[in-house]
Glycerophosphodiester phosphodiesterase (Cellulosimicrobium arenosum), 244 residues
Amino acid sequence: MNRPAVVAHRGNSSVAPQNTLAAFEAAWRAGVECVELDVRLTADGVVVVIHDDTVDATTSGSGAVAGMDLAAVRSLDAGSWFAPAFAGQRVPTFDEVVAFLETRPGIELLVELKGAWTVEQARSVTDPLRSAGLTERVVGQSFWPQSVAALGAADPSLRRGLLVMESGADLPDRCAALGVETCNPVGTLLLEDPGLVDRLHDAGLRTTVWTLNEPAHWEAAVRLGVDGIITDRPDRLAGWLDGV
Ligand code: G3P
Ligand code: CA
């Protein structure tokens, strides 16, 4: 068996609040190869780690991330919604993520840009990584081709990925045009189109599937030869792979 990388979705989000330093730490302790996280820009242009376009679901506050400055976002509690033990967790800044990566050798990051980013905005992700000498331990990905292209323009040496929910015949060409090294499909797409992984590999692309949380789905993905599996249960997936 070709063992796929275990990618912790929003950190180890089954045991800690998603997209917080606590979730990233839990993923690190679980021994994963990679941590996936989502980034957005605040109103004052700072990169923060949060999935939704509002803070409502995962913090003590309400409102659009893009409409709040950093101080307002940082004043919120991003842990209590998950469990009282995580009270005081904050929405991380990307600088905190860079510091996390610096002190956790071996682990990689899969950074998902939410929405359409400009090249200048993408530099607020690529520049801190380059300054810290960490670019090679990161893949930047997005559903938005514009954001993938912006990452490539900001730093051509950053590995990049395109997230997809459909697999048209032109997918390898679209990936080639964007210069991505990985094409990451939703899990249901693999079941609908079992030849997809081979087609992507034949085109010289890697593929990491999301978000699979059950052994039956892990087994199907492994059988198809994926390079990575994004999961909310990284510790269980790692144990399951040990037993395969
Ligand atoms: O990394 C892929 C996956 O995270 C995309 O979906 O909604 O969880 O960001 P979402
Ligand atoms: Ca994501």
